[in-house]
Amino acid sequence: MTTKPKNFILFGYPGAGKSTQVDLLREAGVDFSLISIGKLLREMAKRDDSLGQKIGQTMASGELLDEFLIEGLVKDVLRDTDKTKMILFDGYPRTLTQIRGMEQFCEEYGLEPPTLLCLKITKEEAIKRLSDRRVCSKCRNNFAYSKLEDKEKCPDCGGELIQRDDDKPSAIETRFDLFDLQLGVILQHFQSIGRYIEIDGMGTEEEVHGRLLRAIGS
Ligand code: AMP
User: Fold this and answer.
1) Residues with a CB atom less than 6 Å from ligand 1
2) What whole-number distance in Å separates Cα of residue 81 and Cα of residue 18?
3) Strands (E), 77-151
4) Considering the entire predicted model, what is its pTM?
5) Cβ distance 136 to 189 under 8 Å?
6) What is the crossing angle of helices 205-216 and 18-27, to 10°?
7) Half-sphere exposure of 204 toward its Cβ, with a 13 Å CA cutoff?
């Protein structure tokens, strides 16, 4: 009997370093399919139509997008995802409705139900990191503003560096309030089914990377 690949959900406060850790896993040669809902939504928000506008406005406010849209998006993405290797979900599920949707998709495709990996940092640290984050408007890479020599241009491609609307102070507050609300429900669910691993997200990127590798068993 062949064993199914394990699947994981990367979870944590905005700014906990999820994207950085995903990049470090890739660099370390861990083979996985990534489903990043936030990244897909940011791509869709660039579209010059009413849906693109609606997504952009909702994201800028820090609110969650409607369940119907997210379900359709995940369905489309999962259909085209290589399911023979580990799947890493980033930013999904965030609500009980989405957890139920995910359970259905897993059953449909015969996937191993994912384990929640929760990257924990203090609220103060997350606010500090988010306020310092800038993104390139061209290549979409993230940078720490305080460490940049040229504060205006992307060191990778020369594109204009901007602050994400949802990284601005008013939206950070909303995102945190929402996260605290969501966290309770989601943590409780995954703890109750015994699929929950807490990872200390404080410390250097490499330290957190080591903890993450141990958690996924690579
Ligand atoms: P993220 O990059 O994962 O922090 O997501 C950025 C924004 O995208 C969030 O603040 C939400 O507006 C939206 N978003 C991302 N994932 C979801 C989801 N699973 N359900 C609803 N909205 C989402």
Assistant:
1) 14, 37-38, 41, 58-59, 62-65, 70, 91-92, 94, 98, 166, 175
2) 20
3) 86-90, 115-120, 133-136, 142-144
4) 0.84
5) no
6) 70
7) 3
Provide block-wise average pLDDT over 10 residues at a time, the chain (218 residues). 85 84 96 93 92 91 90 94 95 93 95 94 83 88 90 94 85 78 88 96 94 92
Q: How far apart are CA 174 and CA 130, in angstroms?
A: 13
174-204 confidence digits (pLDDT tens)? 877 777 787 788 999 999 999 999 999 999 9
Tokens 């703890």 sit at which residue?
A: 191
Which residue's alpha carbon is nearest to atom 11 within ligand 1? 64
Closest CA to 16 of 101, 133, 103, 166: 133
The rounded Å distance from CA 2 to ligand 1 centre is 35
Whole-number Å distance between alpha carbons of 8 and 48: 33
Task: Pick the residue whose CA is nearest to atom 6 on ligand 1.
Answer: 38
Which atom of ligand 1 is nearest to 70's Cα? 20
The Cα–Cα gap between 37 and 132 comes to: 23
